[in-house]
Amino acid sequence: MRISSSFLVFWVLATGSALVLSGCRPLPPSKPASEWTPQEARGAAVFQAKCARCHYPTTTHPLHGPGLQALTKVKAMPSGAPPTDERLTDVILHGRSMMPPTELTNTELADLLAYLHTL
Ligand code: HEC
Hints:
By secondary structure, the protein is mainly α. Helix content is 45%, strand content 0%.
């Protein structure tokens, strides 16, 4: 009993530090498509049309821009700015360095922001 529990502690510590060392912190999972509200589903369609060629939504692996998994659940976006709706709106409508501006109607923007919160 004693041996097995200290082995368990060792295993947990070893696995935990391996994750930290590899820089791979587990992020909260994205909301599954089956649970999207109608607005989130419309936002997903906007994302597919306007963003998907440069961003993966459900991993942090980069495509042309950073992967957006858990975008609104982390403290800071890749630029260091907090992922507030104001900041996201600014990046989306005006672009940022290598990211071009995207033209959206107010409804498309609101739907897209709702979808980004599911990631
Ligand atoms: C042509 C490719 C391209 C398209 C299309 C594009 N992006 Fe980006 N995006 C980028 C690049 C490149 C960056 C990194 C910019 C930088 O250097 O800070 C980026 C950065 C971002 C960031 C991080 C901003 C930060 O402050 O770190 C967010 C969020 C983002 N994009 C969301 C979107 C959304 C939502 C859409 C769709 C409306 C979109 N992008 C469309 C290329 C693109």
